[in-house]
Amino acid sequence: MAKKAVNISVRPRGPRDSGHMMIKRFLRKCKKERIIEQYRDTLYYEKPSTKRAKAKRRRARVLQKLREKEKNS
Fold first, then answer.
1. Which of 9, 12, 40, 43 could lock 17 by a disulfide, CB 3.0 to 4.6 Å apart?
2. pLDDT score, position 24
3. What average pLDDT does range 20-38 have in this prediction?
4. Which of 38, 31, 28 is nearest to 4 (CA)?
5. pLDDT of 6
6. 54: alpha, beta or left, given left = phi > 0 and alpha = psi -120 to 50?
7. SS (H, E, C) 4-72
8. Structure confidence by residue, pLDDT tens digits, 8-20
């Protein structure tokens, strides 16, 4: 399930673009591409049955929230 390699680059937009803004832009791009989350997911081995159970619990939470939202509407 490895995603393709992603190269992220950030360049100054103008002469007044500060380093802080470029770092923020870089972190936003990393978050959007899920680079850090993917690294953390692959840091330790997780059994396939555990992955499936986790996905099932996540899906149940999402469905529960949708049901509550429908009920309140």
1. 12
2. 95
3. 93
4. 38
5. 81
6. alpha
7. CCCCCCCCCCCCCCCHHHHHHHHHHHHHHHCHHHHHHHCCCCCCHHHHHHHHHHHHHHHHHHHHHHHHH
8. 999 999 999 899 9
Q: Which residue has the tokens 């393709």?
A: 4
Task: Report the Cα–Cα distance between both ends of the chain, in Å, rounded.
Answer: 38
Give the chain's domain count: 1
In a domain, 13, yes or no: no
Residue 26, domain member (yes or no):
yes
Q: Is residue 43 part of a domain?
A: yes
The pLDDT value recorded for residue 3 is 66
Cβ pair 25, 10 in contact under 8 A: yes
Condensed to tens digits (0 to 9), the pLDDT of residues 34-59 reads 999 989 989 999 999 999 999 999 99
